[in-house]
Amino acid sequence: MGTDTATAPGAAAAPSATPGNRAIGFLLVTVCLDAMGMGLLIPATPQLIMALTREGLASAAVYGGWLTATFAAMQLVAGPVLGSLSDRYGRRPVLLGSLTAFGLSYLLMAFSPSLPWLFVSQALTGLFGATPATAGAYLADVTPAPLRARRFGLVAAAFGTGLVIGPATGGILVALGLRMPFVAAALLSLATVAYGAFALPESLPEHLRRPFSWRTASPAGALRELRRHARVGLLLVAVFLQRVSTTTLPATWPYFVMREYGWSSRGVGYSLAAFGAATIVGQVWLLRVLDRAFGSVRAAQAGLALLALGYVGFSFGHGAWVAPVCIPLATMGFMAGPALAGMLSVRMPADAQGLLQGVIASLNGVAAVLTPLVMPALFSKFSDGTLALDFPGAPYFLSALLALWGTFIVARGTRAQAVLGEARA
Fold first, then answer.
1. Could you read off the pLDDT of 197-229 as tens digits, one per residue?
2. Does residue 362 form part of some domain?
3. How confident is the model at residue 20 (pLDDT cuts 50, 70, 90)?
């Protein structure tokens, strides 16, 4: 059996703090409620865009891509800043403060009277919603190195739980009012803050904190700073490719299934709930099994390969069998994320975990900016009748190729850079 257990010089091999189960529970609940809040909006967003613009579904897909890209662009900037602030002032105040502003920005979104206001509220949501960096740093603070990939898997499973509940609930709430899902998302975020005020102790001791610098808090500066600690370039490329591939589905799924299968908003919500359920199984059970038996490298490669297989099914498959067969395969791509995060985390010192998670969040932000711009536009181009080839699955085919590239990058990066030797039985 094997797992990634080696650490870089200066990296903490044991947690620097040991808060109780309530703190770990808060992190999982936070991620779950964040995902649920975002999932609530997915079934309602196409209809809201069409109501505000009075345009059709193909145009709404493009506007939806720009909205998602706006959210991601703000997270790109905010991720390293919040991560670095948490390295300086601690995880607790940064996490609770950003969650509060996140909930208020959802309220603004709920009452947006026009498309420009929707963009403004989405920008604020992205700015204050860059909590994964701080939550990931907290988890690294309190988790021994050999268990980090699996703990990050639990976080991803919590995200999947939110995807199960959120879209299905959003599909129901939209029947009560087009803006009801947005109000519900705001209330969930603010309820999380109230819970965290009692359940979340600080995880980063004073003596492990580092000075804050705007130079290293920028995305480019943070990348430069990381290169001082470990040679992680190729693995960060794999993180980027994994994120592009997994972001393709939520960015295009509502438009794809409405076009291909004629599904309603409720059908979209239920299908995304099934997607989230399969993600939970992969993160809680399959990642643990693969990480324990083969190590994080193989777990990451397996996740990306299965994702590619599922996307090929969406691209070329037709009929009722496609969704139940290919959704579970596609969700395995999310398994690669925590495996890669664990591989990176165990070779960073304790006072740079926020910086690392901020860079990962920033790379995720870059991917989340580009993917909603490219993939919905690609869907629109291949499904609006202007081309001789009708191929609405084009975004999934491209993402399958990127995921396969990611499997090669992981293998090459771990060999060439000798990052973390996989211990094998």
1. 888 888 888 888 888 887 777 777 777 777 665
2. yes
3. low
161-184: pLDDT as tens digits = 776 778 778 878 877 887 888 888
Q: What is the pLDDT of residue 14?
A: 46
User: Tokens representing 363?
Assistant: 């790379």
Q: What is the DSSP letter of 11?
A: B
For residue 127, with 0-12 CB atoms within 10 Å meaning exposed, 13-18 middle and 19 or more buried, which class applies?
buried
Distance of alpha carbon 370 from alpha carbon 395, whole angstroms: 12
Domain count, the chain: 1
Residue 122, in any domain of the structure: yes
Contact 140, 357 (CB under 8 A): yes
Phi-psi region of 420 (alpha: psi -120 to 50; beta: other; left: phi over 0): beta
Phi, psi of 349 (to 5 degrees): -65, 160
One-letter identity of residue 296: S
pLDDT of 422 higher than 70: no
CA distances from residue 421 to 4, 145, 154 in whole angstroms, order as listed: 7, 14, 23
- pTM of the complete model: 0.73
> Cβ(167)–Cβ(279) under 8 Å?
no
> Count of CB atoms within 10 A of residue 323's CB?
19
328-363 pLDDT tens trace: 888 888 889 888 988 888 767 777 788 888 888 788
CATH code, 292: 1.20.1250.20
Domain of residue 267 covers 21-204+218-416
Please compute the mean of the pLDDT values over residues 62-87 and round it to a whole number: 81
Which amino acid, 272?
L
On whether the CB atoms of residues 247 and 372 are closer than 8 A, the answer is yes
Give the closest residue to 163 by CA, choosing from 283, 325, 306.
283
Query: Could you give the angle at the alpha carbon of 276 between the alpha carbons of 19 and 254, nearest 5°?
Result: 135
Distance CA 302, CA 257 (A): 26
DSSP string, 291-354: HHHT-HHHHHHHHHHHHHHHHHHHHH--STTHHHHHHHHHHTHHHHHHHHHHHHHTTSBGGGHH
Closest by CA to 206, choosing from 22, 13, 351, is: 351
